[in-house]
Design brief:
heterodimer; A: alpha/beta; five-stranded mixed beta sheet; globular; B: MetI-like fold
C-alpha cells in the first residue's frame, strides 16, 4: 500500500509538472502566433528563403531588395523570413508553410526540380501574364526560362541562376604525384591512374573523392553518381519515352567505378562518406590543407573560399584547378556535367499577387542578379549579367564552369524523383560499404524502381 | 450529488480539454491520414484521395518496415526494459546500502544525464561515440584501438546512449519504492534464513511490483517515441541499420513528403505502444489476483 501511495505521489508530481509545462508552451505559442491586425493600406509581403552559415548570399540580396522595394512602395512592408536548414529540410518546411493560407509565403525560393510537383500541389502561381509585361524577361537565357515551366506549358518560376559540376583539384597535390597541370582526364581509367599516382606519392592524401551514400543526399547523385552514369552509354530517365531505365550496364559500371575508388582507398573511408557533413571537410579542411587531390563539386565551389565565404582561403585561385568530368571511355561529347539551380516563385495563395511579382522582379533586376551571381558563384541566367565584366572577373573559374553548360544534364523533375534518387543513393551506399556487389546493388535498384514507378514506366536499355 | 460530481470534474477539465485538442485530435487526424495519399507536394497535396488500406498493404511488402519494427522492439527491450529499468533498479538497491556521500554522488551523476534536454544529451552522446570522440580517445590513451561506433555498431551506440539518458528516472522511482518496503518483513525473512538474493526476489521485488510495472509502462512508451537521440547520432543509418519506427515515419512523411505512408507507420507505432501497455496492465492484474 505504502509503495503504491508513493508511486502515486511521484506520478502526480510528474503529471503536474508536465501539465504546467504544456500550459506554458501553449501560452507561449498562442501569444507568438496571434496575427497582427493589417490595416487596409498597410500591406505585408511574406518572403521565405533559405539561409545557412555557408549560404548568406541570397539573404544579402533579399535585404537590399527589401530596402529598394519599401522605398518605392510606401505602406508595403516586406517581411523576410529566412529558414535555417539544409536543402532537404528547407523543402519540407516550405511545403509545410504552403499547406495553409495563413502561413503560405507570397514569394519564395524554390528548387528547380521541385517546380513541377509543387505546381501539381497547387502551391505556385502561373506567371505567364505577368512575365509578358516584364521588360527584363527577354534578357533571360532561353534554356533557363524552361527551368520554371510545368507540364501544362506555362511558366511558374523565374530562375536566379544555374550551376554545373566539374572536377576541382588541388594543383600542389597533383604536382607532387608528377601529374602535369592543368589536368584534364579523358576517361575514367585516367582518373584512376592519377588517383593511384597520388596515393603512391603521399599515402596520407585522399586522392580522388566521389560522394556516395544516403547521408550526403542529392550531393551523392548530383556531385558523383550522375557524372558517372550520364557518361556511359546509358542514362537514368528517357526524356522522349518518359520512362525510367532499368537493367543498364552503365549503372553497374558506375557502381563498379565507385567500388574501385573506395576499395583501393582512393576516396574517403566509407564511414567518412556516410557522415552528412563530409562536404564541409572537403571545402573547409582537406582542400585548403592539401590533403585532398580532387573531387567533383559544383561551380559554386569558389563561393566557399572567396572573401566573406564560409571557409575563406586566400590562395584558392592559384592552388585550385578545374577540369571537365570525362565520359567513361572518352565517347562523345567527351565530358559530363549536371545542372540544377533555384528559382523564385509567387505563392498561389498570395493575397497580393501583383505586388508579390513586383517584388520578385526587384530581387531579379540586373543589379541584384549580378551581385547574387557573383557572391554565390552562380552561372548567370540573364544574358546582360553574363556579359558584364564584373561577373566574368568574379573568379578565375567562371569561364571554365560556364562552358560546361554545353555538356550538362538536368535531373528528371518528376514528382517521384526524390524517392528514385534515394534508391540510387542506397545502391551507392551498399557498394561502398561492401554490403553488395555492383551487380546485386544494380539489380536491387531495378527492383526498387519497378516498385516505385510501376512496370509500364520502365524501359530496358 | 450530481452538482458535486460536476464540481469534482472541474479541476481536471482543463487537462481533458488540452489532451483532446493537442493529443487526441492529432492522433485521430494521423489515423485518418494513413488511409489517404496525402502528400507534401504533387497531386496528393492539393486533394488527398481515400486509398483504403493501400498504405498498410505497401508496408507489408516494404523491406524497410519489418526491419524498423524489429529494431524498435530491440531498442525498447534493450535500452528501456533491460538498460534503464534494470540498471536503475540495481543502482537504487546499491544506494540503500551505500553511505550517504556515495549515494548522493552517484545520484547526482546519474540524474545529470536526465536533466539535459534531449538535443543536448544527443549531441553529447554523438561526441562521445564519434570517430574522433571521447570514447576512442580514452581507448587510444590506454593503447586499445577504437572503432567507428556510430557506423559499425549503431544500435549498440543508441541503446547505450538511451540507457545513459533514461536510467535516472527509473532509479528515482525505485528509490522511492524501496524506501517504503517495510523493514520488519525483510527482517522476518532474514530470521527465517533467507539469503540476500532470496529476500530480493521473494520479498522486495513483489512488494514494489506496482512501481516496477508503472515505471516500465512509462519508460517503454517514452523509448518507443525516441527520435531526437537517434536522428542526431546516426540519422537511422548506415543503410537503415538504426532506423526505428519513429525515424522511418519521419523520413517517409517529411523527407519523401508522403504524409499518408508516414502516418500509417505512426499508426502502427501507436498500436505497438498499446500492445506493450496492455501487457504491463495484464502483468499487474495477474499478480494482484
Amino acid at each position: 500500500m505504502g509503495s503504491r501511495l508513493k508511486t502515486f505521489r511521484v506520478r502526480t508530481a510528474i503529471y503536474r509538472s508536465a501539465a504546467m509545462f504544456s500550459v506554458a508552451a501553449i501560452l507561449a505559442a498562442t501569444t507568438s502566433c496571434s496575427p497582427s491586425p493589417d490595416a487596409a493600406e498597410n500591406k505585408t509581403l511574406k518572403i521565405v528563403y533559405q539561409k545557412t552559415d555557408s549560404f548568406t548570399a541570397l539573404d544579402a540580396v533579399m535585404q537590399d531588395a527589401k530596402k529598394e522595394f519599401e522605398a518605392a512602395h510606401s505602406g508595403v512592408t516586406v517581411d523576410l523570413q529566412p529558414i535555417q536548414a539544409n536543402d532537404d529540410d528547407y523543402g519540407t518546411k516550405l511545403s509545410l508553410t504552403q499547406r495553409s493560407t495563413d502561413t503560405a509565403p507570397d514569394v519564395f525560393y524554390e528548387d528547380t526540380f521541385k517546380v513541377r510537383s509543387d505546381v501539381d500541389a497547387g502551391y505556385l502561381l502561373k506567371l505567364d501574364s505577368y512575365l509578358e509585361k516584364w521588360s527584363d524577361w527577354p534578357a533571360f537565357d532561353e534554356a533557363a526560362k524552361e527551368a520554371g515551366r510545368a507540364d501544362d506549358g506555362a511558366v511558374y518560376a523565374v530562375p536566379l541562376g544555374t550551376d554545373t559540376r566539374a572536377i576541382w583539384y588541388n594543383k600542389a597535390v597533383l604536382r607532387k604525384a608528377g601529374i602535369p597541370v592543368p589536368w584534364q582526364p579523358k576517361t575514367w581509367e585516367e582518373i584512376l591512374a592519377a588517383a593511384r599516382a597520388i596515393k603512391a606519392a603521399d599515402p596520407e592524401a585522399i586522392p580522388f573523392n566521389l560522394y556516395a551514400g544516403k547521408a550526403t543526399g542529392e550531393g551523392t547523385v548530383m556531385q558523383g553518381f550522375y557524372e558517372l552514369l550520364y557518361g556511359t552509354d546509358s542514362t537514368l530517365y528517357d526524356e522522349h519515352e518518359k520512362k525510367w531505365v532499368v537493367g543498364s550496364q552503365g549503372f553497374t559500371d558506375s557502381l563498379a567505378f565507385l567500388k574501385t575508388l573506395y576499395d583501393e582507398k582512393l576516396a574517403v573511408s566509407p564511414a567518412e562518406a556516410l557522415d552528412a557533413n563530409v562536404w564541409k571537410k572537403v571545402f573547409g579542411e582537406w582542400f585548403p590543407k592539401g590533403k585532398l587531390g580532387a573531387t567533383v563539386e559544383g561551380s559554386y565551389a569558389p563561393s566557399f573560399w572567396q572573401k566573406g565565404g564560409a571557409y575563406e582561403w586566400p590562395g584558392y585561385e592559384q592552388d585550385m584547378g578545374v577540369a571537365m568530368f570525362p565520359t567513361q571511355k572518352g565517347q562523345e561529347p567527351g565530358g559530363v556535367s549536371m545542372s540544377g539551380g533555384w528559382t523564385l516563385a509567387v505563392g498561389a495563395k498570395s493575397q497580393n499577387p501583383d505586388l508579390s511579382f513586383s517584388f520578385l522582379t526587384t530581387v531579379l533586376n540586373k543589379k541584384n542578379a549580378l551581385s547574387y551571381d557573383i557572391n554565390n558563384s552562380q552561372i548567370a541566367v540573364r544574358t546582360d549579367v553574363a556579359a558584364d565584366p564584373g561577373y566574368l572577373a568574379a573568379n578565375p573559374f567562371v569561364k571554365d564552369v560556364s562552358d560546361l553548360v554545353k555538356v550538362t544534364h538536368y535531373r528528371p523533375a518528376t514528382a517521384d524523383y526524390p524517392r528514385i534518387s534515394t534508391a540510387v543513393q542506397e545502391a551507392t551506399e551498399a557498394v561502398i560499404t561492401g554490403k553488395k556487389s555492383p551487380e546485386d546493388a544494380s539489380a536491387d535498384y531495378d527492383a526498387a524502381l519497378r516498385k516505385l514507378v510501376g512496370e509500364d514506366k520502365v524501359l530496358e536499355k | 450529488m450530481t452538482v458535486r460530481r460536476v464540481l469534482r470534474l472541474l479541476p481536471v477539465a482543463p487537462s481533458i480539454v488540452l489532451l483532446t485538442v493537442f493529443l487526441l485530435a492529432p492522433v485521430v487526424w494521423s489515423f485518418h491520414a494513413s488511409f489517404t495519399n496525402a502528400a507534401l507536394s504533387g497531386k496528393g497535396a492539393r486533394e488527398p484521395q481515400w486509398v483504403g488500406m493501400d498504405n498498410y498493404v505497401r508496408m507489408a511488402g516494404d523491406d524497410s518496415f519489418p526491419l524498423a519494427a524489429w529494431l524498435t522492439v530491440v531498442f525498447v527491450m534493450a535500452s528501456a526494459v533491460l538498460g534503464q529499468s534494470g540498471l536503475g533498479l540495481l543502482i537504487a538497491l546499491l544506494m540503500t546500502r551505500s553511505s550517504k556521500a556515495v549515494s548522493s554522488w552517484v545520484g547526482t551523476a546519474v540524474v545529470a544525464a536526465w536533466v539535459l534536454p534531449e538535443i543536448v544529451a544527443a549531441f553529447a552522446a554523438y561526441a562521445y561515440f564519434n570517430r574522433d570522440g571521447t570514447l576512442n580517445q580514452i581507448l587510444g590513451g590506454m593503447g586499445i584501438p577504437g572503432a567507428d561506433w556510430l557506423y559499425s555498431f549503431p544500435m549498440v551506440a543508441i541503446i547505450l546512449a538511451n540507457t545513459w539518458r533514461g536510467t535516472a528516472f527509473s532509479m528515482l522511482v525505485y528509490r522511492a519504492a524501496l524506501a517504503d518496503v517495510p523493514r520488519d518483513v525483510s527482517e522476518a525473512a532474514l530470521m527465517d534464513g533467507a539469503r540476500g538474493w532470496q529476500r530480493l526476489a521473494f520479498i522486495t521485488l513483489p512488494l514494489i511490483r506496482s512501481s516496477i510495472a508503472t515505471n516500465l509502462m512509462l519508460i517503454t512508451l517514452q523509448t518507443l517515441a525516441v527520435f531526437t537521440l537517434i536522428w542526431v547520432m546516426t540519422a537511422g543509418g548506415p543503410a537503415n541499420a538504426s532506423t526505428t519506427l519513429p525515424v522511418l515515419a519521419y523520413q517517409e512523411a517529411f523527407k519523401f513528403g508522403d504524409i499518408g505512408y508516414g502516418t500509417a507507420v505512426a499508426s502502427v507505432l501507436i498500436v505497438l505502444g498499446m500492445v506493450f501497455g496492455a501487457v504491463y496492465v495484464q502483468l499487474l492484474r495477474d499478480k494482484r489476483a
